[in-house]
Every structure is written in structure tokens, then in C-alpha cells.
């Protein structure tokens, strides 16, 4: 299958391109230099020239705190840019997969969010604009996947695991929030799932994070240091005690993933297994 991937130089985009090519697909990766998604003419031109059967749209503004001071720019990327891609897909009859986020919900309560839940109430500019992207895709196309993910980490970019390991080298003690609950998502595992999904016509909304249960950022940090052999002490604090963040974060990022198996897709492995593989792949960065 001929598949175009936006955001191909990003953390997920790199792993997705690698997975698609490994499977023998004709994968075309583009980033801002090849196709500026905020420029409708650029998007139409590239997609009409490539003529992909499917587009996996990974490109996004993901700096959550910085988004609060750049709402117009963020909306141009996450909402307008996504609509440009959706309209270009419609013009050539291509299916589209949009990578979204748990931030479209308000994070209240303790029940896992269902993929087909429409009780949207994003707390931040990032969440609002990603939701606007979702609505643009669903309002433009019939053949689409909207896949929400959370707590993403991979070898190719900035993420919580890399940050913890970096801080753990120089700090004997760290404060980490304990009242935000979710599950990590490892990009190579997610790439495998997305490659499985894109060749099907099982369209709709899905949630995709690794298996292994729901944890806090504090729990995740403790596991990172234990597996890396660091002696860094981790202190649990509430979001209010931690402060610092400009954008509001959802407390409840539990995503129900049962629709994946119900649709015949193989769920992602346990996040602990994923963390072990990540640490092995990035050993040169963090081994002291």
C-alpha cells in the first residue's frame, strides 16, 4: 500500500516509517520542509502528486505549556492543518488516520474514557485544538481512523523517560506528581498497531496505549529508576504542590482500549516490557 506519513521526523513518525517500510509498504514521509500542513495549497499539491491510498497524520504541535501562549499558531497546526490534510485526502479518495490525545477530555472522575465518548471538555489550548482536528477529520471524511494516545515515549524524541533519566544523573531526589493517572505509550509498539489498522476498513475512534494497568507519573518514575539501577529518591506530590505547569493537565487519562481487541487488533504489550526495551535501545544515553 502507498502510505503518506506526516510528521515523519518526529518521535512517532520515525518509528512508523520504519515499521511501514519493514512490511514492504511504499511509505512516503513528509515533514514541514516537504509539506507545510498549514498551507492548504502545499498540502493539496503534495498529496495529489504522491496519490497515497492512505495518510497517517502524525504532525502536530505537542508542546503543551508553550501552546498556552501561542493559541493562534497552535490552532493553525492542529486544527487548520489537520483540516487541510483531510480535505486533500477527500479529493483523491484516500483514507486518513489522525493521531489524537486524551487531552480532548476534562480528566475528571476515575472511569476510563471510552473511544466513542463525545463528552469533550478539553482543559488546555493543546487539547482544544487537537479536538478541533478530530472534528475536522470526522466532518470531512467517511474513511477515517481517530486514534487517541497518551504519555508517549520513544527513542527518537523528548519524553518523560528521557527527562527522568537525565535528571536522575544529577539529582539525588526528585518530586513527581502522583495524582495524574494513565498508561504510557511506546512508539514502536504503537507503530506496529497503526500499521495493522491502516490496511483495514475498520474505521472509527480508538484508544491505544500499552497494556499493564493504570499508573501515576510517580509510579512510572519509580519503575524507570528501578530498572535503570538509579538510586534517585522519588517523592510523590500532588499537581497543586508541584505547580510550574502553565497548561492544565487531566487527572484522569485512563483510556479504555477494549475496542482494539473487539475489532480484531492485537493490543500493545505491557508498558513494563516496553520500558525494558526502551532502556536497552537507549543504553548509551543513560548508563552511568
UniProtKB/TrEMBL annotation:
Q: In which pathway does it act?
A: Carbohydrate biosynthesis; dTDP-L-rhamnose biosynthesis
Q: Which SUPFAM superfamilies match?
A: NAD(P)-binding Rossmann-fold domains
What is its EC class?
Answer: oxidoreductase
* CDD domains per record: dTDP_HR_like_SDR_e
Query: GO cellular component terms?
Result: cytosol
Question: Which key words tag this protein in UniProt?
Answer: NADP, Oxidoreductase
Q: Could you state one GO biological process linked to this protein? A: dTDP-rhamnose biosynthetic process
Question: What's this chain's function?
Answer: Catalyzes the reduction of dTDP-6-deoxy-L-lyxo-4-hexulose to yield dTDP-L-rhamnose.
- UniProt family annotation: Belongs to the dTDP-4-dehydrorhamnose reductase family.
Name of this chain's protein: dTDP-4-dehydrorhamnose reductase
Organism annotation = Candidatus Protoclostridium stercorigallinarum
Q: What are the leading ranks of the lineage? A: Bacteria, Bacillati, Bacillota, Clostridia, Candidatus Protoclostridium
Amino acid at each position: 500500500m502507498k502510505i503518506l506519513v506526516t510528521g515523519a521526523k518526529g518521535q512517532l513518525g520515525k518509528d512508523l516509517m520504519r515499521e511501514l517500510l519493514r512490511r514492504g509498504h511504499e511509505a512516503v514521509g513528509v515533514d514541514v520542509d516537504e509539506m507545510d500542513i498549514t498551507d492548504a495549497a502545499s498540502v493539496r499539491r503534495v498529496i495529489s502528486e504522491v496519490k497515497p491510498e492512505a495518510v497517517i497524520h502524525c504532525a502536530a504541535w505537542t508542546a503543551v505549556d508553550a501552546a498556552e501562549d501561542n493559541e493562534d499558531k497552535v490552532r493553525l497546526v492542529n486544527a487548520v492543518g489537520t483540516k487541510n490534510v483531510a480535505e486533500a485526502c477527500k479529493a483523491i479518495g484516500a483514507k486518513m488516520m489522525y493521531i489524537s490525545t486524551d487531552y480532548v477530555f476534562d480528566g475528571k472522575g476515575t472511569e476510563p474514557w471510552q473511544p466513542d465518548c463525545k463528552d469533550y471538555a478539553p482543559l488546555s489550548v493543546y487539547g482544544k485544538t487537537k479536538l478541533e482536528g478530530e472534528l475536522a477529520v470526522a466532518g470531512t471524511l467517511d474513511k477515517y481512523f481517530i486514534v487517541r494516545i497518551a504519555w508517549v515515549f520513544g527513542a527518537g524524541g523528548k519524553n518523560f523517560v528521557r527527562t527522568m533519566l537525565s535528571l536522575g544523573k544529577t539529582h539525588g531526589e526528585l518530586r513527581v506528581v502522583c495524582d495524574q493517572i494513565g498508561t504510557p505509550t511506546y512508539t514502536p509498539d504503537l507503530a506496529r498497531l497503526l500499521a495493522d489498522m491502516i490496511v483495514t476498513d475498520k474505521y472509527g475512534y480508538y484508544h491505544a496505549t500499552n497494556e499493564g494497568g493504570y499508573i501515576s507519573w510517580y509510579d512510572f518514575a519509580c519503575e524507570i529508576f528501578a530498572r535503570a539501577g538509579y538510586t534517585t529518591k522519588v517523592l510523590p506530590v500532588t499537581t497543586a504542590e508541584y505547580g510550574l505547569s502553565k497548561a492544565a493537565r487531566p487527572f484522569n487519562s485512563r483510556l479504555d482500549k477494549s475496542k482494539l481487541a473487539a475489532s480484531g487488533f492485537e493490543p500493545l504489550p505491557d508498558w513494563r516490557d516496553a520500558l525494558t526495551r526502551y532502556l536497552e535501545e537507549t543504553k548509551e544515553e543513560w548508563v552511568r
